[in-house]
UniProtKB/TrEMBL annotation:
GO terms for cellular component: synaptic vesicle membrane. Belongs to the MCTP family. It is found in: Membrane. GO terms for biological process: regulation of neurotransmitter secretion. Residues 9-126, 173-290, 332-445 form the C2 domain. InterPro entries: C2_dom, C2_domain_sf, MCTP_C. This is C2 domain-containing protein. It comes from Oncorhynchus tshawytscha. It is a multi-pass membrane protein. The gene is LOC112230850. Keywords: Calcium, Membrane, Metal-binding, Repeat, Transmembrane, Transmembrane helix.
Length: 714
């Protein structure tokens, strides 16, 4: 057999001495990853969990399965790659899989494609190295590679095939169509894995108190989900539901790991288990109790595999909803009187991504390589890349399943970069309920924070068809949470913004209270008389059904008010946006000390508000804890009187008497100082901080100053 190593890649036998010159011809590269030998140790147990990544042109094109606890793993799995240049080497990297943590690097190597002899299978032995520690032995990988030209029509590749595109080389328009087709098939999911995480049973204790703070992590391919943490228990009740996408026809392997949350240090690993989804029947809910492999305990979950029929990517000529027969069939499927068998199947949304204009130039050449990503909750599809163009035309149609009509469609434009992550160009967010069916509209792209415009427009046309009944029923269940979200960061601007938002809400309540109090104070006799008569009529005739009736009248009134105020709201929103931008520019001119003082003011305000809330909560608690017996006895007396009054006198009369007293108090005594009896009572009850301050310290004769002086040898 022939061996090809990293150090002698260009001189080994079996390698063509005349290197293949780059051409516009397409090549198929067949790779069989056989095994690894003497790989590096990365786990505490003296083993590793290795997997291999293949990258070309800076993009990951294949990832192997993970072999657990083995330094001589046997993979025996292969893939087929279509390439249109042999100048870029194939970059092979090996990692140790650490679930929930960053995977450890185990070595890398390059395979130079232009050095390979074509039309025959070549055994290859790659020596793994670490660029930072080149003298360390990290083992070897054994592969078999076959390189052959692809002439004429390209047949449908293996389902794991990915097409690697070079920005500067396109052989023909027909070839570009094939690239887009392969890109389309690679990102479509074939089904949905619905998982209900119920509970954990008899988990292993990891904390000194004999308990744990467990949470679970799920992984299916590149998709991840983390459950909430249940404190101080060995039998956590998670009761969470989430969905993952199923890309492989065979099902794939679901990995589950349970961890113990530790604040301030690394979380402890409790155990893991795996589930082969290909062994489960589809369209059926399975109740599973999976035992953890590396410790005691088990995880109980409900799992359902369902097909996904509506997810698609197509050209404009194949638009599903433009066919009258198919549109009529879909509208009938989500009609008012259809069965409610699957409440998650609320409807479908079709989005035509037409083109973009005037995009930002992200490359040094003054151009960009834009592509478009569409996200609906955790569903994610994307267009192909249009290279070196600021006015791209994609002309693609995307179809999503709608699980919640209140979801927001997010459309983001990126610039593709070969050697690093894509650059952000702009974004728009469109609530599904705001979509006007069949209307082609140009949307101004916004910045990452979605607070202001950036350069460029994107033209979209959307249609949404949904079941009103299912949408209403789904409204009163918990919404789907996004699995991938940015970690929150401390921001002075964001803290100030959130503080101002809360402040506006509190001021609104205060203004309402001030208006009501002005009626009691008789600042305007006409208003006070009207309010008094309204109060008496409502209280005397009040019935419980009047509460939803009043809310119904308020909603109806606001409907007619806001209908004529839409344009004004838009203008005010634009003005607000400009004011925020102006504030940002002004803040940039401020010195460091000014920003520090502004942050200090916000922190002081938040600190005072938290102190007030905590103090009143502690005072209510201390009233019932007999911290001050006099106040507790006084509370008993007041509650006894209130109980007798409520038993003997109807509530309607008591409320009426309270209102008459409030309205006439100012008339009876114009110089009366207003007060709130309940808050006045609570102000006499000490908070926990005050209890600690008022507590006497016991005198210890052994710690008296005179005794310390005698025992001091100096």
């Amino acid at each position: 057999s022939l061996s090809l190593s990293l150090s002698v890649a260009t001189g080994a036998s079996g390698v063509n001495s005349d290197r293949a010159l780059p051409s516009s011809e397409m090549y198929q590269l067949d790779i069989v990853l056989k095994r690894g030998h003497n790989l590096a140790i990365r786990d505490r147990g003296g083993t590793s969990d290795p997997y291999v990544k293949f990258k070309l042109c800076g993009k990951e094109v294949f990832r192997s399965k993970t072999i657990h606890k083995n330094l001589n793993p046997v993979w025996d799995e292969g893939t087929k790659l279509l390439v249109d240049s042999l100048q870029e080497p194939l970059y092979v990297k090996v990692f140790d899989y650490d679930f929930g943590l960053q995977d450890d690097f185990m070595g890398s190597a390059y395979l130079y494609l232009e050095s390979l002899e074509q039309q025959r299978a070549i055994p290859v032995n790659l020596t793994l190295q670490d660029p930072h520690y080149p003298d360390v032995d990290l083992g070897t990988l054994e592969l078999t590679v076959t390189l052959r030209p692809k002439d004429g029509s390209i047949e449908e590749p293996h389902r794991d095939t990915m097409l690697l595109k070079r920005t500067w080389r396109r052989s023909s328009k027909q070839q570009s169509v094939r690239l887009a087709e392969l890109h389309r098939k690679h990102q479509l999911w074939r089904g949905i894995v619905s998982i209900s995480l119920i509970e954990g049973r008899d988990l292993c204790p990891m904390d000194p108190n004999g308990l744990s703070d467990p949470y679970a992590k799920f992984r299916l391919g590149n998709q991840k989900y983390r459950s909430k943490t249940m404190p101080k228990t060995l039998c956590p009740q998670w009761r969470e539901q989430f969905d993952l996408h199923l890309y492989e026809e065979t099902g794939g392997v679901l990995e589950i790991a349970v961890w113990d949350k530790d604040t301030g240090r690394r979380d402890d690993f409790i155990g893991r288990c795996t589930l082969d989804l290909s062994t489960l029947a589809k369209e059926h809910t399975h109740r599973l109790e999976l035992a953890l492999e590396e410790s005691r305990g088990s995880v109980v979950l409900l799992l359902t595999l369902t097909a996904s029929s509506h997810v698609s990517i197509a050209d404009l000529s194949l638009t599903p909803l433009d066919d009258p027969i198919e549109r009529r069939e879909i509208m009938g499927r989500y009609g008012m009187f259809r069965p409610l068998s699957n409440l998650k199947d609320v409807g479908i949304v079709q989005v035509k991504v037409m083109r973009a204009e005037g995009l930002m130039a992200a490359d040094v050449t003054g151009k960009s390589d834009p592509f478009c990503v569409l996200e609906l909750n955790n569903d994610r599809l994307q267009t192909h890349t249009i290279y070196k163009n600021l006015n791209p035309e994609w002309n693609k149609v995307f179809t999503f399943n709608v699980k919640d009509i209140h979801s927001v469609l997010e459309v983001t434009v990126f610039d593709e970069d070969r050697d690093r992550s894509a650059d952000f160009l702009g974004k728009v967010a469109i609530p599904l309920l705001h979509i006007q069916n069949g209307e082609q509209k140009g949307y101004v792209l916004k910045n990452k924070e979605m607070t202001g415009p950036t350069k460029g427009l994107i033209y979209l046309e959307s249609d949404v068809i949904y079941s009103t009944v299912k949408a209403g029923l789904r409204t009163i269940v918990p919404p789907e949470q996004k699995y991938i979200e940015e970690e929150p960061k401390v921001s002075k601007h964001l803290l100030q913004q959130n503080f101002n938002r809360v402040k506006r809400c509190i001021l609104f309540v205060i203004n309402i209270g001030t208006f009501i109090n002005s009626c009691f104070e008789w600042e305007s006799p006409q208003r006070s008389i009207s309010a008094f008569l309204f109060f008496v009529v409502v209280v005397w005739n009040f019935e419980l059904y009047m509460v939803p009736g009043a809310l119904l009248l308020l909603l109806t009134w606001n409907y007619f008010i806001t209908a004529g105020r839409e344009s004004g709201d838009t203008v005010s929103a634009v003005v607000l946006c400009k004011e925020e931008e102006k504030d940002d520019k002004d803040s940039e001119r401020k010195g460091f000390m000014d920003k520090l003082y502004a942050l200090q003011d916000v922190c002081v305000s938040v600190q005072s508000a938290l102190d007030d809330v905590a103090s009143y909560g502690e005072r209510i608690k201390n009233t019932f804890n007999w911290t001050v017996p006099f106040l507790s006895w006084l509370a008993i007396s007041i509650l006894c009187v209130a109980t007798v009054l409520l038993y003997l006198i109807p509530l309607r009369y008591l409320v009426l008497a309270w209102g008459v007293n409030k309205f006439t108090k100012k008339l009876r005594n114009p110089y009366l100082i207003e007060n709130n009896e309940v808050l006045d009572f609570l102000s006499r009850v000490p908070s926990d901080v005050q209890v600690m301050q008022y507590r006497e310290l016991k005198f210890d004769p052994g710690q008296s100053p005179s005794k310390r002086k005698k025992t001091n040898p100096g």
